[in-house]
Amino acid sequence: SKTLERTGETFNFLAAFIIGGFILSSVQIWLKRRRSYIDHCNATRNLLIVISSIVEDEDEKTLLIRWIILGYELAVMKGRKLIDSNITREYLEDLHLLEQNEWETMVNGV
Predict the structure, then answer these.
(1) Vertex 29, ends 25 and 31: CA angle to 5°?
(2) What is the spatial distance between Cα 110 and Cα 102, in angstroms, rounded to a whole number?
(3) Alpha-helical runs (H) found in 1-110
């Protein structure tokens, strides 16, 4: 009976460490993803500012800004594992980021 109690206590003690390790690992993964997303947002913002400041031709500026935002949105969709989906295509079309035949050019086999 005492052996069974000791075994139960030991199991509870070990389970707490295992669960704690799992939670710590999950939080670290989430923090890393969040940091990467923040870095991605900052880089996109900085690139938009630079392009808007340097490029003088309005048509070129509009095209480059559209491509930057398109790249950003595609990267976010890739993180969500939706990169080649019709959901992404419709989303990008709703934002007016895709021009005629661009999707077919970017996504092989669609």
Answers:
(1) 115
(2) 11
(3) 2-54, 58-79, 86-94, 102-106
To 5 degrees, how large is the angle CA 77–CA 80–CA 86? 55
Residue type at 85 in one-letter notation: S
Residue 78 has which token pair?
Answer: 């890739």
In the block, residue with structure tokens 């895709």 = 98
CB–CB of 36/30 below 8 Å? no
> What does the alpha-carbon distance between residue 110 and residue 106 come to, in Å, rounded to a whole number?
9
Give me the helix-helix angle, 58-79 and 2-54, nearest 10°. Answer: 170
Does the pLDDT value for residue 1 go beyond 80? no
What's this model's pTM, rounded to 2 decimal places? 0.73
Question: Please, are residues 92 and 70 in contact by the beta-carbon 8 Å criterion?
Answer: yes
Residue 110 has pLDDT above 50, yes or no: no
Classify residue 110 by its DSSP letter.
-
Amino acid letter, 64 = L
